Each structure stands twice: as structure tokens, then as C-alpha cells.
UniProtKB/TrEMBL annotation:
Family affiliation: Belongs to the AP endonuclease 2 family.
Record's protein name: Apurinic-apyrimidinic endonuclease 1
Native organism: Thermothielavioides terrestris (strain ATCC 38088 / NRRL 8126)
Domain Xylose isomerase-like TIM barrel span(s) in chain numbering: 116-386
Biased composition, class Basic and acidic residues, residue ranges: 25-45, 406-429
Record flagged with keyword Nuclease: no
Regions of compositional bias (Acidic residues) in chain numbering: 46-62
A UniProt-annotated Pfam family: AP_endonuc_2
Top-rank taxon, per record: Eukaryota
CC per GO annotation: mitochondrion; nucleus
Compositional bias (Low complexity): 8-22
GO MF annotations, alphabetized: DNA binding; DNA-(apurinic or apyrimidinic site) endonuclease activity; phosphoric diester hydrolase activity; zinc ion binding
Cofactor(s) the protein needs: Zn(2+)
């Protein structure tokens, strides 16, 4: 089992590398989410946590796989951006709406480094991984890291209770039906929650998981059961379920899934939702026009309840509406477009929530190597803040909108072609009967971020 998975991992790695060569992948974004034969690949250039190595960009949610380890940590890579900030943080009080915008930054070298990395890009909120997101076990949170985390919080004035949103491990599937694997998932999950509480962090975001071929109802019940247990083992941190873009075995692409989990959570004060804009759009929830945005928010309210909405992941989408593909695009360059983000920025009820960019920042350096350009996040934060109170009919807005759409045109066209081709293929397949009902986790549970 392990050997076979390693082989698969190696194959997927080759594909991931190929994708990079084509300039197709971006940081923390899956390449393909639907086709079983094309195993999803994640490209994550930096090792998070205290790792001295990088882990291959492949993960299973299922615990059966040991990721291949590649020792290629660049000696020169710095864990902390302690140079001149790329942008100054905007005083949230100066904004017409108190929007706390930031990005998923690196906590490599210790969680305390994430604070400086966030400040460096002018973020007023941020996400991070609390430990290596690709390993089942990590060393406990170091006292030193904890002390420094609190000191850095003080120095930079972030409210850990409200504006830091750690992201759960990609390995964890709380819907896991297998008892031993469910325990492994739970242990990892509750360990993260305990880290949150040690650091004074109030919110924690995770992917609901995969049914593994069981019914959606039973999967939601297992997730709720795990949450109940984890809530009892901890005392304050609020667990936020992220909406997903997929269909099939993935839990959470419909608001109804989120509702069904929350319904079975005993302590409702400990559960909420984080909406990823790219996932919502790809799952068929439109956000582009004020009317569509209002409709989606109203649907969320009637199905789940607005009081559960606690955070956002702000990503544009390289894939078209309802395509069930998870391809994050830079703000304004994707199929969502700048207007969708204008809608969000000007929706007063969303004030005070952490809003986290997971947009691609990888660029090809002059030597052909991929480098991260964090200026992209610094600029996107300022762009989003500038949308607050902006008139969409103004020349300023229209020019920016056109400029960003032009920038993403080729990429959108490319993905649109892929989606159209797949739809054509599926339509042909449909006449020959549907493919096998029982899909494995591996085939279906491959969303990212
Ligand atoms: Zn996520
Ligand atoms: Zn995603």
C-alpha cells in the first residue's frame, strides 16, 4: 500500500514538475481536481514549520501515504522578511468598512515568523500553517516559538483572537470512516486546536473532507462527531469549515453540507464557516454582480445562517463558473473579476472578519527558477482596500477592471478550453453509461487551499 502510493506520488510529482514547466501551476493551488488519472498536484515552494526539507507536492487525505521527501531546502532562503516592508499596513479605522485583509503567509522556521511576514506585505489579517501540513506528526510547539509569537503579536498589534486564521493540514479528513485513520486525523486536528489556544488564536479553518464513498449524510455526521470531541478537548478556538469547489465525494461544496455538519455540532459557538470565493464560484455560487452576490449571501443565510460566516479566502478563479475546478487566480484576473471583490469589500456585514489571499505569487526569475514575489500580495491587499467605497462606474474602477481582465485573458481562455473539452468528453461518456459509482478518496478528494 505504502509502496504503491509512493509510486503514485512519484508519478504525480513528475506531472507537477511538468505543470511547472508549462507555467501552469501556482503556489498552493491544485492543478486538476476532477480527472482521476491526473492525480492532483500541489506546488508549495516553501517548507512550513521547522522542517529542514521540502516535501513533494503531493498529499493524500487518508493517512495511507508517506510523501516522498526531497532534500532541497535552499540554504539562502530566509524564513522572515525583515527588510523594508513592501507596503505599510493600512489603518483599518481609516477605511469606510473595517475590512481586515491579508494573505496566507509562511511560518517556516517557527510560527512567530508568520507575524513579521504578514506585516511585511501590509496585511491586517493572515493565515499560516501551525506545523508541517504534509506530515502526520510534528514536534510540539516550542516554548521559544510561543514566547516569540506573543512578543511579535504585541509588537505588530495583531489581534490573534480575530485576525489570525490558521489553515488545517491537508492530510486530515475528519469524515474518515476507518477507525484507525479517523483517530490519526483527529489527533492531528486536535493538536492544531491546542496550538491555537497556546498561541491565543481564536479561529481555525479546515477542509471538511471526503465521504470516501460512503453517504454524504454519514460523512457529515462523522465530521460533527469529531468536532464535538475536539471542542470538548479544547476550550475556546472556533473551528471554521471551508466550502469546497468539487462535487462527488468531497464534503462541503454545497451550503447544505455545511448546514448538515453544523446541525450536529453540540456547541454551536465553536463552529463557523470560511468562504473561499474561488471555491464558491467554481461550485456554482455566483458573486459577480451585486444581484448575484446578494442572492448567494441570501442563500447562505437561509441554508446555513449568516451568523456562522466568520472568514473569507479571497481568490479569483482561473476556471469558469460552476466548473468544479480549484484554480486560484490573482484578484481581478479571473472569471470572478474585480466586481465580485467590489461586492465583498462593500458588504458591511463582513467587517472585522479575517480575509485571506491565497493567490499565486510564483514568478519565473531571470535564471528560470521559480521565485515568490510577495509584492503581488502587498499590491492585492491595497487594491482590495481601494475598492471600499469606490464607484464601479468611475473611470478608475473601469480602467483597473479592464487592465486586470486583460492580464488574465490567456489563462482564462486556456482553462475554458480544458473545461469545454472535458464537458464534451463527459457528454460522450454519458451515452455509454456513467463511470463506476464507488470512487476512492484518492480519485475524488483533491481540493486544495
Ligand atoms: Zn483551504
Ligand atoms: Zn482552493
Amino acid at each position: 500500500m505504502v509502496r504503491q502510493s509512493s509510486r503514485k506520488a512519484a508519478q504525480a510529482k513528475t506531472k507537477a514538475t511538468a505543470a511547472v514547466a508549462q507555467g501552469e501551476s501556482e503556489s498552493k493551488v491544485e492543478v486538476d481536481t476532477k480527472t482521476p488519472k491526473r492525480k492532483a498536484a500541489r506546488i508549495e515552494p516553501e517548507a512550513d514549520g521547522e522542517d529542514a526539507e521540502n516535501i513533494d507536492p503531493v498529499e493524500e487525505n487518508d493517512g495511507g501515504t508517506k510523501p516522498a521527501v526531497k532534500k532541497r531546502k535552499a540554504a539562502s532562503k530566509k524564513d522572515v522578511d525583515d527588510t523594508m516592508p513592501l507596503a505599510a499596513r493600512t489603518a483599518v479605522t481609516s477605511l469606510k468598512h473595517a475590512m481586515h485583509i491579508g494573505a496566507h503567509v509562511s511560518g517556516a522556521g517557527g510560527v512567530q515568523n508568520a507575524i513579521q511576514n504578514a506585516a511585511h506585505i501590509g496585511a491586517n489579517a493572515f493565515a499560516l500553517f501551525l506545523k508541517s501540513q504534509r506530515k502526520w506528526t510534528s514536534p510540539p510547539l516550542a516554548d521559544e516559538a510561543k514566547t516569540q509569537f506573543h512578543a511579535m503579536l504585541e509588537q505588530h498589534g495583531y489581534d490573534a483572537r480575530k485576525h489570525i486564521l490558521p489553515h488545517g493540514s491537508y492530510l486530515v479528513n475528519l469524515a474518515q470512516a476507518d477507525a484507525a485513520k479517523a483517530t490519526q486525523a483527529y489527533d492531528n486536528f486536535v493538536d492544531d486546536l491546542q496550538r491555537c489556544e497556546a498561541l491565543g488564536i481564536g479561529l481555525y479553518n479546515f477542509h471538511p473532507g471526503s465521504t470516501g464513498g460512503t453517504t454524504m449524510d454519514s460523512a457529515c455526521a462523522r465530521i460533527a462527531e469529531q468536532l464535538n470531541k475536539a471542542h470538548k478537548a479544547t476550550s475556546t478556538v472556533v473551528t471554521l469549515i471551508e466550502n469546497m469547489c468539487g462535487s462527488g465525494n468531497v464534503v462541503g461544496s454545497r451550503f447544505e453540507d455545511l448546514r448538515d455538519i453544523i446541525a450536529l455540532v453540540e456547541d454551536k459557538s465553536r463552529v463557523g464557516v470560511c468562504i473561499d470565493t474561488c471555491h464558491a464560484f467554481a461550485a456554482g455560487y455566483d458573486l459577480r454582480t451585486p444581484e448575484a452576490f446578494a442572492k448567494t449571501m441570501a442563500e447562505f443565510d437561509s441554508v446555513v445562517g449568516l451568523k456562522y460566516l466568520r472568514a473569507f479566502h479571497l481568490n479569483d478563479s482561473k476556471a469558469p463558473f460552476n466548473s468544479h475546478r480549484d484554480l486560484h487566480a490573482n484578484i481581478g484576473t479571473g472569471f470572478l473579476g474585480l466586481r465580485a471583490f467590489h461586492n465583498i469589500m462593500n458588504h458591511a456585514p463582513l467587517q472585522g472578519m479575517p480575509m485571506v489571499l491565497e493567490t499565486p505569487i510564483d514568478e519565473k526569475g531571470p535564471d528560470g527558477k521559480t521565485v515568490e514575489n510577495k509584492q503581488i500580495w502587498a499590491d492585492e491587499i491595497k487594491l482590495l482596500e481601494s475598492l471600499i467605497g469606490m464607484d464601479v462606474e468611475s473611470a478608475e474602477f473601469r480602467e483597473k477592471e479592464a487592465e486586470l481582465q486583460a492580464k488574465g485573458a490567456a489563462e482564462r481562455q486556456k482553462i475554458q478550453l480544458q473545461v469545454d473539452k472535458k464537458a464534451e468528453k463527459d457528454a460522450k461518456k454519458g451515452t455509454k453509461g456513467k463511470k463506476g459509482k464507488k470512487k476512492t478518496d484518492e480519485d475524488s478528494y483533491d481540493e486544495s487551499d
